[in-house]
């Protein structure tokens, strides 16, 4: 009756080794998706450990002095097999969980990203601006925003068509994104308008940053390839910027946007391609562009 025990013992150990080998596949998939760094090395180390275990299983099955002559001799093979099941389940679950988390993250990103410009969308902006305003008020930190509008954008659409207009919007958005600080938040406000949130930033500093952005955009020459426009075309655009910051009389996100919008309106009315600060911030906004020196803003 115990004749079957040697086959059963070896079978359990070898099956365990095979199960361990299949557990490498999910770990390998996780390993491949990770960027170089500590975490990737840790998953690589796990693969190495599994390989060592497999070698151990094979050596045990081949050279074990135990003859598997009575049922108790099967305890170790059963533990080997159980261990392999455990490793396989943990590795498979890790892969499924990682995929779920990545999918959720991608969905979340999609939900807060403007598909054309590849920057934050209006939904995210509204929430983030509200959060930043509340935080700034709670901790008595300064907070400012820019409302940026591309000048005469309609002409670009009318002259070159909407497809070129879209490419201009996308390129300007990416240019702005590259040009702001990491702590600042850029979002599409609507149409050809952008908002930049500048946490912990006084209006005087924001003004200088806005001027810098305005110059960067004005100096930028966008050459569109033939597959976008009928002929290769180089386009220059300018932007007008309204700047507003929190004040004792303006303590919420809606008021900030309204003040920045009024400042932007004045920038447009004054001739465009300039930065104007909200009147509520007590800086003479009628003086625009480079006319306001840094010293005056202290
Ligand atoms: N191609 C493209 N055009 C857009 C998009 N969103 C808004 N627009 C265009 O942006 C233009 C905005 O025009 P206006 O509001 O008159 O402003 P403007 O021509 O920039 O003039 P000012 O703002 O006064 O300097 C309109 O022609 C819209 O159709 C978009 O996603 N893609």
Write the layout of secondary structure elements.
Layout: H1 4-33, H2 38-63, H3 75-111, H4 122-139, E1 143-150, H5 153-160, H6 162-179, E2 185-190, E3 193-199, H7 203-219, E4 221-224, E5 233-236, E6 239-245, H8 253-269, E7 275-277, H9 294-297
Parallel strand pairs: 6-7
Antiparallel strand pairs: 1-3, 1-6, 2-3, 4-5
Helix pairs in contact: 1-2, 1-3, 5-6
The chain binds guanosine-5'-triphosphate (GTP).
InterPro entries: Diguanylate_Cyclase (IPR050469), GGDEF_dom (IPR000160), Nucleotide_cyclase (IPR029787), Rev_trsase/Diguanyl_cyclase (IPR043128)
Organism: Shewanella atlantica
GO molecular function, one term: diguanylate cyclase activity
């Amino acid at each position: 009756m115990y004749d079957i025990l040697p086959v059963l013992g070896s079978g359990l150990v070898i099956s365990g080794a095979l199960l361990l080998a299949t557990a490498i596949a999910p770990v390998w998939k996780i390993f491949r998706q990770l960027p170089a760094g500590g975490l990737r090395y840790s998953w690589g180390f796990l693969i190495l450990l599994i390989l060592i275990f497999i070698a151990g299983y094979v050596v045990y099955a081949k050279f074990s002095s135990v003859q598997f002559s009575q049922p108790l001799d099967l305890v170790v093979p059963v533990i080997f097999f159980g261990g392999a099941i455990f490793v396989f389940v943990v590795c498979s679950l890790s892969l499924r969980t990682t995929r779920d988390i990545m999918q959720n993250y991608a969905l979340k990103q999609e939900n807060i990203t403007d598909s054309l410009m590849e920057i934050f969308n209006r939904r995210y902006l509204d929430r983030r601006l509200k959060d930043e305003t509340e935080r700034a008020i709670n901790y008595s930190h300064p907070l400012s925003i820019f409302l940026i509008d591309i000048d005469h954008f309609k002409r670009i659409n009318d002259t070159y068509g909407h497809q070129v207009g879209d490419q201009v919007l996308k390129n300007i958005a990416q240019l702005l994104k590259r040009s702001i600080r990491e702590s600042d938040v850029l979002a599409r406000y609507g149409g050809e308008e952008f908002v930049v949130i500048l946490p912990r930033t006084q209006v005087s500093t924001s003004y200088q940053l806005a001027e810098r952005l305005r110059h960067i955009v004005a100096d930028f020459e966008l050459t569109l390839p033939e597959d976008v426009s009928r002929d290769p075309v180089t386009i220059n655009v300018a932007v007008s910027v309204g700047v507003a910051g929190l004040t004792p009389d303006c303590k919420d996100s809606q008021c900030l946007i309204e003040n920045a919008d009024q400042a932007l309106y004045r920038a447009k009315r004054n001739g465009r391609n300039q930065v104007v600060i909200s009147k509520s911030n007590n800086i003479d906004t009628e003086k625009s562009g480079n006319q306001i020196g840094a010293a005056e803003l202290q």
